[in-house]
Design brief:
This protein is α+β, with helices and mostly antiparallel strands. It folds into two domains: 2-74 and 251-285, no CATH class; 82-247, no CATH class. Helices cover 20% and strands 36% of the residues. It has helices at 2-27, 253-285, and strands at residues 37-43, 46-50, 59-62, 65-72, 79-81, 87-91, 96-102, 105-109, 112-113, 115-116, 122-123, 129-134, 155-156, 162-164, 171-179, 184-189, 193-200, 202-204, 212-215, 218-220, 229-231, 240-243, 245-247. Strands 7, 8, 12, 13, 14, 15, 16, 17, 18 and 21 form a ten-stranded antiparallel beta sheet that branches. A three-stranded antiparallel beta sheet has the order 9-6-22, with no helix packed on it. The longest helix is centred in the C-terminal third of the chain and has 33 residues, at 253-285. It starts with a helix and ends with a helix.
């Protein structure tokens, strides 16, 4: 009978973990590119009262429940239009991430809300430098989709406000820039000159569910995520980049509220099993008066 008390305790303790995850999901329903969490349970050890024999099944009593895993569901969220040129959403690439750096530390994110710092570097809201492919030569009729104008190693992306005039002395000022679905950033400068400023890079993982959350919408590589594989938007398996869009959270409120009801009732049921076991023990004690 004491086993039932402790089984109920394990149920209440681990169901509270599930409630913590559900509450975090609901709290982040409006967080850009947030990925919902999921808790799975598994049974604990079982006490064998009688071993299995030919024609007779084993007699086992379970000793409670434990958390089997806390998963991050990496399915893509819907894209929401913002109309802002430096907002990027990844489309059809659930295993792809933007690569950002803070000094020597590398992080990965699905949050494509980027900005430029005073020197023109493309950065996150937290100041981390967005990585991509840079290079290019000013030309009158440059082909913005020619990858040979860019390097092959990821580096910080800089949107140059001025460039040297290739036709003579002086500098040319940036008039506007655009970003296409393949991640190319093309700047238009005074004098009718255009320049490929860079290309937003993407990084893919064989098991993105294995990435570790680091806060600030950032993830880090783990032993279970697989090695990062750098690539380009538009390539197979990497998806495309949509300028002027941000990825929304993939939290399903209807599902979360349903899970909250089930979790609450499960907690009550485990609590009731403890009080019922206590009542039975009380009756046992009261046998001799």
């Amino acid at each position: 009978m004491l086993k039932s008390l402790y089984s109920g305790v394990t149920g209440m303790k681990n169901i509270q973990t599930k409630m913590d995850v559900i509450s975090n999901n609901i709290a982040n329903v409006n967080t850009t590119a947030f990925k919902t969490g999921r808790v799975r349970f598994e049974d604990m050890l079982s006490q064998t009262n009688a071993s299995a024999q030919t024609g007779i099944n084993a007699q086992q009593v379970g000793l409670g429940v434990q958390v089997g895993s806390i998963d991050t569901v990496m399915s893509g969220g819907s894209l929401q239009s913002t109309g802002r040129a430096l907002d990027f959403g990844i489309e059809n690439g659930d295993s792809s991430f933007f690569t950002v750096k803070d000094g020597e530390n590398t992080f990965y994110t699905r949050d494509g809300g980027f900005y430029t710092d005073p020197t023109g570097n493309l950065v996150t809201s937290g100041g981390l430098q967005v990585q991509g492919y840079t290079g290019g030569t000013p030309a009158v009729n440059v082909d913005p989709f020619d990858p040979t104008t860019l390097g092959t190693t990821m580096a910080p992306i800089t949107i140059l406000q001025t460039i040297q005039n290739p036709d003579g002395a002086g500098t040319l000022d940036l008039q506007s820039y655009s970003v296409d679905s393949k991640g190319f950033i093309v700047g238009s400068y005074s004098g009718g000159k255009s320049m490929v400023l860079g290309r937003v890079g993407l990084t893919s993982f064989s098991n993105p569910d294995g990435l570790q959350k680091s806060g600030g919408n950032l993830y880090t590589e783990s032993a279970n995520s697989g090695a990062p594989e750098a690539g380009n938007p538009g390539e197979p398996g990497y998806g495309s980049v949509r300028s002027g869009f941000l990825e929304m959270s993939n939290v399903d409120l209807a599902n979360e509220f349903t899970e909250m009801i089930v979790t609450s009732r499960s907690y009550q049921a485990n609590s009731r099993s403890i009080t019922t076991s206590d009542t039975m023990l009380e009756e046992l004690i009261n046998l001799k008066r």
